[in-house]
Amino acid sequence: MYSESDLQAAVEAGAIPQSAADALRAHAASRRASPLVDEEHFRLLTGFNDIFVAIASVILLIAVGWLGQDLSSSGDHQPSMIAGTLVAALSWGLAEYFTRVRRMALPSILLLLSFAGGVAFAVMAAGMRLAPDANERTGALIASAAALLTAGAIWLHWRRFMVPITVAAGAAAGAATAIGLLVAVVPGIKDGIIWMILAAGVAVFACAMWWDMSDRARTTRRSDVAFWLHLTAAPMIAHSLFQLLGALDGAVSALTALSVVVLYVVFAIVALAIDRRALLVSSLAYVLWALSALIRQAGAVEWSFALTALLIGSALLLLSAFWHRARKMVVEGLPHTMKARLPYLDREAGQPDRVFA
User: Fold this and answer.
1) pLDDT of 100-128, one tens digit each?
2) Beta strands in 258-299 (DSSP E)
């Protein structure tokens, strides 16, 4: 059985024309009776070997990090710069084969995350060694420096391997850098950190939309990059807004619960318009909590969670089943200038022509 990566490799090698590959994808999709219009495709597995390699890589990286920490430990149990450096170096080395040569999706994602984590850990460890008694401002500067250097390392990784999730990791590191610098320069601003997270989430969302608008048919790697950016922005936006509404303050009032439900409906409209489901998934826990509180206040205390799960689960399944029709209604009601920037309503069926890494 041939995988998507085999098919794409055949196209790149000139063994078959691109039109034949597209026709084969469309035929396979039609046989599955599942139209691929308005579907979010991204590469996660190319086969079970991805899981096998991912597990082996995680075990190896943990072992190397553990040994690096023990070898450099002087009994003070401080984070080790050597451990982070070894993890980052090993992650890059493994990516040279499993990402550049084998083009394995899941291992590539894990190796990018471990590389970024290793760099951040090493820089933070170095900062803690240089300033063991750092105050709050110095700590914020160290954190922002770690985030900035990690963003630079992530950019180098992108230039080398072009893994779609890399841009999202870089955006998250950039947001952490900006927030850390603001807290260091204006210490009193930390009380409004939730607003900074919201602003950062909106900025990442805008970046995701830029990538999405550059590939309205969602047939290239740019759509995969946008997918991970949306997945990064969604929890930042959802968590910030729901916290500002007071949905995380313990007891939820009826007004707060209704506000959460209304906001979730707004998220659903946005998700339909841009054809991305990340906002709905990221805010699902909040709306479950809010609806459960509403049902409890209505008197159904014992059945509150069950009824909430029944309502939300049914609504989401119906939305999934009629996603294309609902999206068409939303998009057709928008101004032409906005419609011209959103993903096409009637994209050709067929697996997207993407190259992972």
Assistant:
1) 998 898 999 999 999 999 999 999 999 88
2) none
Q: Specify the pLDDT at position 39.
A: 61
- Segments in 186-344 forming alpha helices (H): 193-213, 221-245, 254-274, 278-282, 284-297, 304-321, 323-332, 336-339
Q: What confidence score (pLDDT) does residue 32 get?
A: 45
Task: Using a pLDDT cut of 70, give the percent of the chain over it.
Answer: 84
> 0.70 exceeded by the pTM?
yes
Q: What is the pLDDT of residues 61-91, one digit of tens each?
A: 999 999 998 887 655 566 778 999 999 999 9
Distance CA 310, CA 295 (A): 12
Residue 344 is encoded by which pair of tokens? Answer: 């096409």
Helix axes 165-185, 221-245, angle to 10 degrees: 40
Q: At what angle do helices 323-332 and 254-274 cross, to 10 degrees?
A: 90
Q: Give 288's Cβ-side CA count (13 Å radius).
A: 14
Structure tokens at 103: 């083009």
Distance from C-alpha of 115 to C-alpha of 118, rounded to nearest angstrom: 5
What gap in Å lies between CA 164 and CA 158, rounded to an integer?
A: 8
Q: What share of residues in the chain are helix, strand, coil (percent, to 5)?
A: 75, 0, 25
Question: Which two tokens mark 7?
Answer: 């098919």
Report residue 118: phi and psi, to 5°: -65, -45
Nearest to 289 by CA among 253, 340, 323, 240: 253
Q: Give the C-alpha separation, 119 to 124, whole Å.
A: 9
